Amino acid sequence: MAVAVRAGDEFLGSVWAAVEEPLTPDREQAFQDAAKLVALHLLRHRAGADAQNRLRADLVSTVLEGGMGAADALDRLGLVEEPTVVLAMGLRGQRGDHAHLAAERQRLTSALGIHLNAVRPRSALALLGDVAYAIVPVPADPEAGQERAAQIAANFVERAGKRSQVVIGIGSVATEPSALSRSRTRADRALRVLMSDQRSRRVAAIGDVYIDALLLDLRDMAAVQGDELLSPVARLVEYDAKHRSHLIETLRAWLDAFGDVIAASASVFVHPNTFRYRIRRAAEVAQVDLQDPSVRFALMLQLRVMRPPSTQE
After folding, report:
1. Which residue among 3, 127, 170, 264 sits deepest, i.e. has the most Cβ atoms within 10 Å of its Cβ?
2. Cis peptide bond prior to 232, omega within 30° of 0
3. CB atoms within 10 A of CB 160
4. Lowest mean pLDDT segment, chosen from 67-76, 85-94, 168-177
5. What is the CATH number of domain 79-222?
């Protein structure tokens, strides 16, 4: 026999009993009444858990923001005496129904909590907005601490499965409460690179992706300042738009191949002679000397930072 456990229209679960024959009406009524008591118990348990989770999230948020209350919040979490690292977990390719994404983030946060409870029981975890942050105790040695944090993150990602889009950025080892805000910032920067990265990399510390993070910072700075494409790249973009040519694509392929025409032409499926003509034409239109290393560096940096429309991935 089974009876549903409900709170209004919400289904909470069910209660089962193995019996040799159907229940009498009185026992059936008692069974249904018992389900109501179970519903009250589950609601009280959930309310208590929700309140505890909110308190823990507030403490984690206070610690990560730094300031006067960080040390006290870390003490209440039981981590004030230990070196720690911040892990920032997000979902790559966040498209689709908002409710589904929110449920998936909550599910993965709960799964990460179970994982951390098994490998680092004193860790503190909270879902803040779209990112789940974990404060994880690690060895005091920076190299050993980073290695341990990376191992914990990699193991969780592996358990989450290849179909999951979960990615985790790893902060720096913090030996005192005031350093946790810096660890959080570095974890956020690493996570942002992973979120925008289409490669298979799913776990990284800021040291692993520093150049990519720096390029994203430069791109943000350019956007805030309202900078538009500047010469000589602007001339190439304008020329491509007017003549439906592929000079930006050609230049980028050539720079990525370090001037190897054969490799660069193969990457864009163009005959080497045609490619050589295009690269000469690109130099003429842009009015640059591609033999100058500083010019090549400036062009490559601008193409990476400004991301002209014809180079969008």
Report:
1. 170
2. yes
3. 19
4. 67-76
5. 3.30.70.1230
Conformation bin of residue 66: beta by default, left when phi > 0, alpha when psi is -120 to 50: left
For 202, the token pair is 């799913």
Task: For strands 2-7 and 166-170, give the pairing.
Answer: unpaired
**Structure confidence by residue, pLDDT tens digits, 86-109:** 999 998 876 655 667 777 888 888
- Angle ∠(61,66,70) on CA atoms, nearest 5: 75
31, two tokens? 């069974």
Q: Which of 241, 242, 165, 240 is nearest to 250 (CA)?
A: 240
- Is 215 in contact with 230 (CB distance < 8 Å)? no
pLDDT at residue 244 greater than cutoff 50: yes
Q: What is the pTM of this model?
A: 0.68
Map residue 123 onto helix, strand or coil: coil
Start-end of H helices in 66-204: 70-76, 98-119, 142-160, 180-196
Burial category of 19 from C-beta neighbours within 10 Å (exposed 0-12, middle 13-18, buried 19 and up)? exposed
Give me 107's structure tokens.
């599910």
Residue boundaries of the structural domains of the chain: 2-65, 79-222, 233-311
Q: Any idea which fold 233-311 has?
A: Arc Repressor Mutant, subunit A (1.10.10)
Q: How far is CA 61 from the centre of its chain?
A: 17
Are domains 79-222 and 233-311 of this chain identical in fold? no
Q: Is the dihedral of CA 119, 120, 126, 131 positive or negative?
A: negative
